[in-house]
Amino acid sequence: MNLKFGTDGIRGPVETHITPEACLRIGHATGIVMKEQGWNTVMIGKDTRVSGYMLESALQAGFIAAGVNVSLCGPLPTPGVAYLTRSLRQKFGVVISASHNDFLDNGIKIFNSDGEKLSRELELKIEKILNGDLKPVKTEDLGKASRFDEAGARYIEFCKSTVPSNISFSSLRVVLDCANGACYKVSPSVFEELGAEVISIGINPDGYNINDGCGSTHPELVQKEVIKQRADFGISLDGDGDRVILIDKEGNILDGDDLLYILAFSNPNRVGAWSGVVGTLMSNLGLEDGIKKLGYDFKRADVGDKYVSKLLAKNGWLLGGETSGHIICKDLISTGDGTIAALKVISSLLILEKDPSEVLANYRKMPQINHAVKVINKDVINDKDIIDFIKTVESDITVGRVLVRPSGTENKIRVMVEAPEEKVANKYAKDIISLIESKL
Fold this sequence. Notes:
This protein is an alpha/beta fold. It folds into 3 domains: about 10-150, Alpha-D-Glucose-1,6-Bisphosphate, subunit A, domain 3 (Alpha-D-Glucose-1,6-Bisphosphate, Chain A, domain 3, 3-Layer(aba) Sandwich); about 155-360, Alpha-D-Glucose-1,6-Bisphosphate, Chain A, domain 3 (3-Layer(aba) Sandwich), CATH 3.40.120; about 370-440, Alpha-D-phosphohexomutase, C-terminal domain (TATA-Binding Protein, 2-Layer Sandwich). About 35% of the residues lie in helices and about 20% in strands. It contains 14 helices and 18 strands. The chain has helices at about 20-35, 50-65, 80-85, 120-130, 150-160, 185-195, 220-230, 255-265, 285-295, 305-315, 340-350, 355-360, 385-395, 420-440; strands spanning about 10-15, 40-45, 70-75, 90-95, 105-110, 145, 175, 195-200, 235, 245-250, 255, 275-280, 295-300, 320, 325-330, 370-375, 400-405, 410-420. A 6-stranded mixed β-sheet has the order 1-5-4-2-3-6, sandwiched between helices. Strands 8-7-9-10-11 form a 5-stranded mixed β-sheet, with helices on both faces. Strands 13-12-14-15 form a 4-stranded mixed β-sheet, with helices on both faces. It is globular and about 65 Å long.
């Protein structure tokens, strides 16, 4: 069994990778390492995948065998678990979710007591124990399990508390897509209790339909509904609620870069903790240029919200995110939170009394083409012909970027090309993809 942490926990197909035995071992190994940190209770949340019931039981058994107490939250967004682990002290958190993947996959995400993704140091400690002997502690030292029925209600109240008291959503009609995932109960309640008229879709999970043609990877579903319902905003969350894509009343899709720019634009401060913004290697060059013109510094982290969070902490900054819709507002919460990011963007626009298009007119994105190539072995990216060809493309594009990287969560090679003209970016992206496919 070869279990290793990727960019967002441990993830893979349930039938071959994230099995009950794997979760038993992950729980046991994580419990041992966390007890060394002084954390003796774990909060476990999950999304709505059918495999979650099975894996939750196995993970729970592993923690109890390590002498760790278990608090079961049931279906709860990933950032909800992160918030509760920080709020309730002396605990760490685990989420059973494969985020935006389909129901055939599942995964384990782990948060420390500050509600942040684990350091690489702790991940390596867990990995070293994973394949060793699984020996329970003495019977009198076994952990206990209980249900934490207040988890959803506490998270709802926290989300509402992030909206300034002088801001009302009572004039808004919002289309909200919960991706048939972990947000299906809590997020509609947040917007309804803030006064908005909410048209909810993706709130009928059956264990199999999570992210299926809906959610942040399929924002066109909300886009159509916004136009049909004449809504003010559309909100597309992903299966575990840590990503968000917004749609304005004209039907324009606003990705993570757009949301970062709106939040940066609306902030009156450009000093101290607000002096810089963190993006990733995928962030559009136009965003970097626009952020700098607003008076901020801009730095790029590796792809993955934990790397964004790490770079924010290193610089002492509060705002960062990914093009995919992971937005981290560290003044409010320790990790990416789709619901809170949507609340903050909409609140900011209401305070500014501006439509998104008015704010976004101040920066111009460079054409960016993104594709993913399915592979069995991601090591194909190290092929000499591919490396040499990428260098040739980079030398041909005088203004722009090329990024070819293995996905940290799926068996895919991701290809991104930016160029001043879309047809140029398209051509080079297709050439790179053709070369990769010829090597498979």
